[in-house]
Amino acid sequence: MTLLQVEGLTKSFGGRRVLRDVCFSIAEGEIVGLVGTNGAGKSTLGDIVAGITAADSGMMTLQGSPYAPLSAQDARHVGVGVVEQLVRIDPELTVAEAVFRGTPQAGRPQAELRRQAQVLLTEVSLDADPDALIGELPHFVHPLVETARVLAEDTRLVVLDEVSAVLLPSEVTRLHAVAGRLSRQGRGVLYISHRLPEMLEVVDRVLVLREGRIALDCPSASLDPVRLAAETVGGPVSLPVRRDPSAPPPSSPADDVRVPAPARPAPSDEVALLVRNLRVPGRVEGVDLTLRQGEVVGLTGDRTSGVREIAGALTGELPALSDQAVLHGEPRSLDPSADAAALRLPVYRPDADAYGVDPGETIARTLTQEAWGTLTDLRKEIATLRGVINTVHRLDVKTMSIRTTFGALSGGDQHKLALARWMASARDVVVLHEPTRGLDVRARQQVRQLLDEATAHGTSVVVVSVDPDELADFCDRVGIVAGGRVARWIDTGELAVDSVRERIVEAATAAA
Ligand SMILES: Nc1ncnc2c1ncn2[C@@H]1O[C@H](COP(=O)(O)OP(=O)(O)OP(=O)(O)O)[C@@H](O)[C@H]1O
């Protein structure tokens, strides 16, 4: 039986028509994937379904009754819940209070909430103390707390907006188990994601949103990730096939829509960074790291593996010890208080708080390195604005003007621009966390291009990521971290990207 029916939805922001005549349905017990490029309108559509945003026109029915929520609370009352992409939970709430906020149990004594919260947290496989404050938890677990909250409500339909983007493969498996459980209970799930291979494993049907319309609505069984990527962008996709471009690519049913991506430039033999016996007391036991000039080395591991701490030691965010640390032949210290000798590698994180960008500032100003008032020379100003326009074009940012505010861009477009801005001044050896989180398939290749340009100029990069596709595509070597050590190095060398991905998932699962 049909759970949600959507007919002729339209939505514009300012002059930009984001949704035009969107029609689809979700049946009871069905998990429906929603994909589209960055800025295609997926979150807008999810927000309309969840009552956060109102459509300009069109209509919806929920189990046959007219459904026109005036707010998220209104939607929750009739059983439609959402886990938002950039959820921010009040840091002063306990985990148990956060799980039950907005539900009939809210306001009950903590002791009572604790027991029930524990059950729900176990269901979403979140190992968190119900008495802990939300502010004490790392930000990436907020979507899991939200997922537990959705389970606490008597929800008939759940919108999961990019929840998997921050999760490790093992955590994605658990999220999928939750989605499966919701489906077996007859509830519906609208699953928004850019991580196509994983998404295809769980959804029954896929909707592709392109140019404001549902361009494809078909069973997931008839799609593979490459074909779905091509449907998403509306044409052939440039995807890496194997690391060695001179070897013929393996034939695949999706060859007609896959264009091999250009090969990455080979790193030089010169060592840019050498660290021996890196230790972070209690977290990292002894890690050796050699990074050649122009090399991209990936690090991945579960939350307790020590991978974040290794990165934190390299960037000076965590005090650490080593037997030797050498940057371009110069001895360095992993003690951040060692002033000029401290290593302190520059670091980028795709976290809205860490962009260091004012969301109320225009795109033009955000991408301008010079202080705006110092652009007194007209030629310089023209060149600067040309640079801004080029970047916006190259990265295919969906905007009507470079005077649009940064905060009004879609999540993916914000991330691309913030990364481009950061990479423009990145030199030498840098640490990038999750460089393609929340980005569509084309944007991922644009980011890879930014990285290729930087490495061709001698920049070396440490990529810290939960995403096996990103690691397989971007890195020359991938270290699987477990128990405070690098348990295994995977040389991506001349392997096909798909088999690198499989090895990473296998090794990471075995090490967890
Ligand atoms: N409140 C708003 N004001 C102005 N424009 C907006 C607003 N919300 C969304 N938009 C615009 O609507 C378009 C669709 O945004 P939306 O966030 O729905 O895209 P998306 O498909 O979810 O993208 P992503 O994958 O990058 O998250 C974007 O161009 C965005 O700039």
UniProtKB/TrEMBL annotation:
Entry annotated with the keyword ATP-binding: yes
GO molecular function: ATP binding; ATP hydrolysis activity
Organism: Geodermatophilus ruber
CDD domains xrefs: ABC_Carb_Monos_I
SUPFAM superfamilies linked: P-loop containing nucleoside triphosphate hydrolases
Record has Acyltransferase as a keyword: no
InterPro entries: AAA+_ATPase (IPR003593), ABC_carbohydrate_import_ATPase (IPR050107), ABC_transporter-like_ATP-bd (IPR003439), P-loop_NTPase (IPR027417)
Xref: PROSITE patterns: ABC_TRANSPORTER_2
Region (Disordered): 237-266
Entry protein name: Ribose transport system ATP-binding protein
Recorded superkingdom: Bacteria
A Pfam cross-reference name: ABC_tran
Keywords of this entry: ATP-binding, Nucleotide-binding, Repeat, Transport
PANTHER family: CARBOHYDRATE TRANSPORT ATP-BINDING PROTEIN MG119-RELATED, GALACTOFURANOSE TRANSPORTER ATP-BINDING PROTEIN YTFR
Chain ranges of the ABC transporter domain: 4-236, 269-508
